Amino acid sequence: MARQFFVGGNFKMNGTIGGIKDIVKHLSEAKVDPNTEVVISPPSLYLLLTRENLRSGIEVAAQNVFDKPNGAFTGEISVSQLKDSGITWTILGHSERRTILQEKDDFVASKTKVALEGGISVILCIGESLEQREVGKTNEVVLSQLAAVAKEVKDWSKIVIAYEPIWAIGTGKVATTEQAQEVHAAIREWLGKELGQDVADKTRIIYGGSVSEKNCRDLAKEKDIDGFLVGGASLKPAFVDIINAKQ
Ligand code: PEP
User: What family name appears in the similarity comment (predicted)?
Assistant: First the structure.
């Protein structure tokens, strides 16, 4: 079953008006693999600017969204506000939000449910810490993060799962192809057992953690790696090479 290769760019809290315009121009003019689905995620302040300047065919994601429709929630943005601005995706559950902002599994699940119900597709991030990996708890951690979402969400067709080991994010320490494939395979097996073979076959599971133009091609050869979520390298021209990793 062929799953479309997916590459997301997470700018995190980086960029300026000028810098983001440059990235968007570069990406809009670049020769990107037409078989790859590409989504970029600037800080919320620059979502509209990005959407307005980016060529069609490349989508834009928020880095977060709140689980209430509107009201007195200072600092948050809603699903309907994203839709109103032409934004079709959101990242949820990024480890920086789970660890620094203490977001719990059930909150991530609630936001995922609300985003999907409002027509926003979700890049759902899961991943273990170094300590958890070292005590052999990788699968237990990532599968329980997934199970929390599965309690709330039945339709997985608008979810891309991003497996992002925390120890590999922004560290330059990429998971080996074997380490990544092993967890992706465990996730796919869990999807099959818990949600059915169709969900397992169709759901994209992408890898994130120090992906670069140097390591992307080997990772992309693994059978259960359906693309990447890219942080640091998404701000650089080499992001295009990562998008084209399957060519
Ligand atoms: C990320 O923030 O999702 C990420 C994977 O970052 P980096 O590529 O910089 O490790």
Answer: Belongs to the triosephosphate isomerase family.
